[in-house]
Specification:
Structural class: mainly beta
Number of helices: 0
Largest sheet: 7 strands, mixed
Mean pLDDT: 96
Order of helices and strands: EEEEEEEEEEE
Radius of gyration: 14 Å
Distance between the termini: 40 Å
Helix content: under 10%
Number of strands: 11
């Protein structure tokens, strides 16, 4: 059984910073792409950032220059450093990973962590 466990969400004032973490555990052979998505109330889930096993990154235009995604392959962990946060960044943030298990690839999601940007 594979689990993605997120941490690091919370309440922060506009202009502040937060760092999200997501650790994968279980019978993992290797992890391909990892990423962060978010869903605000009344809106569809959207991509925030992704990172490949080789370290190539991709960002939504709305977060470029403010957010940084990184990963520690030895720890099966992906991070999202969020700076200069805005109220419109308020959402539930979900970790995603494409994981190679014995004999197959499967896509997994974390349970989500709330990020609220408000004064």
């Amino acid at each position: 059984q594979v689990q993605l466990v997120e941490s690091g969400g919370g309440l922060v004032q506009p202009g502040g910073s937060l760092r999200l973490s997501c650790a994968a555990s279980g019978n993992i052979f290797s992890i391909n792409a990892m990423g962060w998505y978010r869903q605000a109330p009344g809106k569809q889930r959207e991509l925030v950032a992704t990172i490949t096993s080789g370290g190539s990154t991709n960002y939504a235009d709305s977060v470029k220059g403010r957010f940084t995604i990184s990963r520690d392959n030895a720890k099966n962990t992906v991070y999202l450093q969020m700076n200069s946060l805005k109220p419109e960044d308020t959402a539930v943030y979900y970790c995603n990973a494409l994981i190679r298990l014995p004999g197959k690839f499967s896509n997994y999601w974390g349970q989500g962590t709330q990020v609220t940007v408000s004064s």
